[in-house]
Amino acid sequence: MKIDEEKLFYNKPVKIVSNLPYNIGTALFVRWMTGPWAPWWSQLILMFQREVAERIIAKPGSKAYGRLSILSQWRAKARIIFPVPARAFTPAPKVDSAIIEIISTQPLDPLVEQKTLETITEHAFGQRRKMLRASLRPLTADSISLLKAADIDPTARAEEIDIAGFCRIARQWQFMRDGG
């Protein structure tokens, strides 16, 4: 966690293949996904707990869909290559694992600032069962207008909105926040 990978691998093509320690795997993954873009890496092949891998590749409408899904799929292609059952290890852990592949791409919407998208998804998924008009109210007193301007139903819940929808919300909030 203390290594500055970007400085270490400056101007070198990097592919990471790793069985990350589960206690820091998500933190490392988030750091690699939120750094400057295009990233210093081109491909990640990583093993995670199955539940984390499922959150990374989840689609709208699923229970696993959330901030990690949006963060990974906004500017990368992610897929599970294959599952790894607990019995593949000695001693066997209490959880199954999965190996995923992440390939960096251009952001789905390059006009959206990463921090803005993170803030929007943090509030949207902070209380999953709330409608977006309520969960985004701390960001703007007029969350209904924000959502309507982004062509999102204010009564929708976060898990119903695809990544393009979150990009529209983020772009509209940037516009409103910056005095547009």
UniProtKB/TrEMBL annotation:
InterPro entries: KsgA/Erm (IPR001737), rRNA_Ade_diMease-like_C (IPR023165), rRNA_Ade_methylase_Trfase_N (IPR020598), SAM-dependent_MTases_sf (IPR029063). S-adenosyl-L-methionine binds at M1, N19. Keywords: Methyltransferase, RNA-binding, rRNA processing, S-adenosyl-L-methionine, Transferase. GO terms for cellular component: cytosol. Pfam families: RrnaAD. GO terms for molecular function: RNA binding; rRNA (adenine-N6,N6-)-dimethyltransferase activity. Residues 2-106 form the Ribosomal RNA adenine methylase transferase N-terminal domain. This is Ribosomal RNA adenine methylase transferase N-terminal domain-containing protein. The lineage of its organism: Bacteria, Pseudomonadati, Pseudomonadota, Alphaproteobacteria, Iodidimonadales.
